[in-house]
Design brief:
CATH superfamily of the largest domain: HAD superfamily/HAD-like
Number of helices: 7
Strand order of the largest sheet: 3-2-1-4-5
CATH architecture of the largest domain: 3-Layer(aba) Sandwich
CATH class of the largest domain: Alpha Beta
Order of helices and strands: EHHHHEHEHEHE
Number of strands: 5
């Protein structure tokens, strides 16, 4: 079966932005005065009972770190070749991320791959990966079974498989090329 679309995660999958998530969890726990493990950080904040202004401040702290990290991204010729190959095969490409829109776009521009993406779904749409994937699939006008989803976490594997996408977990950009065979 030849798939019609690729949807990928960003940090940890296409690029390592070297965000210290454990440090951010500590800062957010201190701010909110909670002991919650906050894993994964963004979606966990949906479960936390805290005043709205403190939750807003928590997301500001996270976003500031993401923006700083986005400036560590640089043009990646491997990614550019990967996406050029997909486009030459008429594959639709989407991205889902739990990062904010500003840091996401900055990272994609710095990597040199923004123009290859047909759809981008950030945490401003939803902090739930299931909802993000569903929206990206809807916007790409394909079905779940037409999609290869690439992520880097167990959560990505569980959600992608549950939704019915062919899901592949990678450990960095060096492993994404193995998915090209699924589109040829």
């Amino acid at each position: 079966m030849r798939f019609k679309a690729l949807i990928t995660d960003l940090d940890g999958t296409l690029v390592d932005l070297r965000i210290n998530w454990d440090y951010l969890r500590v800062k957010v726990r201190e701010l909110l005065k909670i002991k919650h493990p906050l894993k994964p950080l963004g979606p966990s904040l949906l479960q936390v009972k805290a005043p709205e202004h403190l939750l807003k401040r928590a997301f500001e702290i996270i976003e500031n770190e993401e923006i700083k990290a986005s400036y560590r991204a640089s043009k990646d010729e491997r990614l550019i070749l990967f996406f050029k190959e997909l486009k030459s095969l008429n594959v639709k490409i989407g991205l889902v991320t739990l990062q904010g829109i500003y840091s996401t776009f900055n990272t994609l521009v710095r990597l040199g791959i923004l123009d290859f993406l047909d759809v981008i779904v950030t945490r401003e749409f939803s902090l739930l990966r299931y909802e993000q994937l569903s929206e990206a699939i809807r916007m790409l006008h394909v079905t779940f079974k037409d999609v290869v989803f690439i992520g880097d976490t167990i959560m990505d594997k569980e959600v992608g498989s549950k939704i019915g996408c062919h899901t592949i977990i990678v450990r960095g950009v060096g492993e994404i090329f193995k998915v090209l065979k699924l589109f040829r």
